[in-house]
TrEMBL record:
Molecular functions per Gene Ontology: ferric iron binding; oxidoreductase activity, acting on metal ions
Pfam families: Ferritin
PANTHER family listed in its UniProt record: DNA PROTECTION DURING STARVATION PROTEIN (PTHR42932:SF3), GENERAL STRESS PROTEIN 20U (PTHR42932)
InterPro entries (UniProt xref): DPS_DNA-bd, DPS_DNA-bd_CS, Ferritin-like, Ferritin-like_SF, Ferritin_DPS_dom
CDD domains in the record: DPS
Family the entry assigns: Belongs to the Dps family.
Residue ranges of every copy of the Ferritin/DPS domain listed in the record: 8-126
Signal peptide start-end: none
Highest taxon above the source species: Bacteria
Protein name: DNA protection during starvation protein
Length: 129
């Protein structure tokens, strides 16, 4: 699988999971987590189009990226935070790997994605109970 396509799929999955947790989170910190997950899924969703268009600019077609993604909507808030943090840690590693074999303009885009995921990760970790 082309490496940028892998980043697109990971980004898409993370947006879906973050939005699902936005809907399903419960508990005493409901409002702040509901809002934080909203801000994060919107930012992540907005990047999907940019990544997909970069794939087109580089000459490849973009296949369907919908997958059967397993999301547990019944997690405790602390487990939602940790689950998302793990996904951000993983996508950061994957992006750093893809950067090694990318052109300068793609690297610029990927650096923007790294900065965004690092910031989301900071917010998530800072919310751990
Ligand atoms: Fe909403």
């Amino acid at each position: 699988m082309p490496k940028l396509l892998n980043i697109l799929i990971l980004t898409h999955n993370l947006a879906l999971k973050t939005q699902n947790f936005h809907w399903n989170v419960q508990g005493s910190n409901f409002y702040s987590l509901h809002k934080m997950f909203e801000e994060q899924y919107e930012e992540i969703s907005n990047s999907i189009d940019e990544i997909a268009e970069r794939i087109r600019i580089l000459g490849d077609k973009v296949p369907s990226i919908s997958q059967n993604l397993e999301i547990n909507p019944n997690l405790l808030p602390s487990d939602m935070l940790k689950n998302l943090a793990l996904d951000h840690e993983n996508i950061i590693l994957q992006i750093e790997d893809v950067k090694k074999s990318s052109d300068d303009v793609t690297v610029d885009m990927l650096n923007e994605r790294l900065a965004a995921h690092q910031k989301h990760l900071w917010f998530l970790r800072s919310s751990f109970a």
